[in-house]
Write a structure and sequence with these properties.
ATP hydrolysis activity, 6-stranded mixed beta sheet, alpha/beta, single chain, 5-stranded antiparallel beta sheet, 240 residues, transport
């Protein structure tokens, strides 16, 4: 299985307690964690990224053990080859589009020369059609452009998997439809594996991957059978 997660984490704040206890595995190129607000989706994503340490269990991605409580393995986030795209994209406001993308190249394991970095940044600017705004700051570009910059920055570090936290939630409906299509097209072009969390059934339909439903910190059901190959990309979904 490319992604194999079985984790338990107890959390408490004030007088509230929350138990995350999820186990799933999938070979699909598009894995969708679906569930209502407060279900435990972000906690699961944070655990995979290495930002939350489970009490028990294991996390394996592409045959690499990222975490295993029984053997004490707990790779640092920067060694996981996992890119995490935050809900608000978390771009650096004081860096231009090109500099934000370049940051993805310097923060990971890769430490390319200045010239190589320049070439890689140019490549990602072209891939995401961001040349025209390369020198703009995040505050001066649109929501869709911000999402593309965040994706470009995430992909520049050549991750094994990209984790996306509600990637379309902040976009207006028209743009949401376009970005869903763009993400699928991009995936087809770049051979990416995506793990997306969402509470929106339209995202589930549009992504058409292996959907895993989480509620109250537990797996609700494997809503669709795991697919070795997520199959041809759907083209019948129009932007809203
Ligand atoms: N540090 C913490 N301490 C205690 N409880 C927490 C902590 N972080 C999150 N929780 C609780 O864990 C539950 C799951 O949170 P999580 O952020 O994973 O939900 P989610 O499914 O991603 O929801 P949303 O779609 O609203 O982002 C929530 O009830 C939340 O209040």
């Amino acid at each position: 299985m490319t992604v194999d997660v079985a984790i338990v984490k107890e959390l408490s704040a004030d007088d509230r307690r929350f138990t995350l206890d999820v186990a799933f595995s999938s070979d699909s190129r598009r894995i969708v964690l679906f569930g209502p607000s407060g279900a435990g989706k972000s906690l699961t994503l944070r655990a995979i990224a290495g930002l939350l340490t489970p009490d028990a269990g294991h996390i394996r991605v592409r045959n690499r053990v990222l975490f295993d409580a029984s053997t004490g393995v707990d790779l640092a986030p920067r060694h996981r080859q996992v890119a995490y795209l935050f809900q608000d994209y978390a771009l650096f406001p004081h860096l231009t589009v090109a500099q934000n993308i370049g940051f993805g190249l310097t923060s990971g394991l890769l430490n390319p020369s200045r010239r190589e970095r320049g070439r890689a940044v140019a490549h990602w600017l072209d891939t995401f059609e961001l040349r025209g705004i390369a020198d703009s700051y995040p505050a001066r570009i649109s929501g869709g452009q911000r999402q593309r910059v965040a994706l470009a920055r995430a992909l520049a570090s050549e991750p094994g998997i990209v984790l996306l936290d509600e990637p379309f939630a902040a976009l207006d409906p028209a743009l949401r439809g376009r970005m869903r299509r763009e993400l699928r097209e991009l995936q087809a072009r770049l051979d990416l594996q995506l793990l997306v969390i969402t509470h929106d059934p339209d995202d589930v339909d549009a992504l058409d991957g292996h959907t895993i439903e989480i509620r109250d910190g537990r797996l609700w059901e494997d809503a669709r059978p795991p697919a070795r190959d997520a199959g041809p990309l759907r083209t019948d979904i129009e932007p809203q």
